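About this split. The held-out portion is used to measure sequence recovery: a designer receives only the structure tokens and must propose an amino acid at every position. Recovery is the fraction of positions where the proposal matches the reference. Here is one held-out target exactly as it appears in the evaluation file.
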């Protein structure tokens, strides 16, 4: 299990336990995380699942080419830590991750 913490736009946090292969956008919707809408259903087209990655314990794969393109196109000033959380998948070697919801 991987511990996933979302910091919402009002600063409050939601922490959940996640199974392998789940992506963070699905977790956010299931747990009512404020500010994540996932308009494209997780197909890397909309950036309404924009987060910044604050902390990682373990391994986190970097963004793919398409994710980087969407971040560049859809987000005015992406952060160095910006990710689309539909593209962040829980894996065996990811122990914990903390993200903050950003404008999508
Ligand atoms: S849900 Fe649309 S890009 Fe992540």
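Reference sequence for scoring:
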């Amino acid at each position: 299990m991987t511990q996933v913490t979302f910091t919402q736009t009002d600063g409050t946090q939601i922490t959940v336990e996640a199974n392998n292969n789940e992506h963070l956008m699905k977790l956010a919707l299931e747990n009512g995380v404020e500010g994540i809408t996932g308009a494209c259903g997780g197909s890397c087209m909309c950036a309404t699942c924009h987060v910044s990655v604050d902390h990682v314990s373990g391994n986190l794969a970097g963004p793919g080419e398409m994710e980087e393109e969407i971040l560049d196109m859809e987000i005015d000033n992406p952060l160095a830590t910006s990710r689309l959380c539909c593209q962040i998948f829980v894996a065996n070697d990811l122990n914990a991750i903390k993200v903050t919801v950003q404008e999508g």
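Annotator remark: DSSP finds two helices and five strands in the chain.
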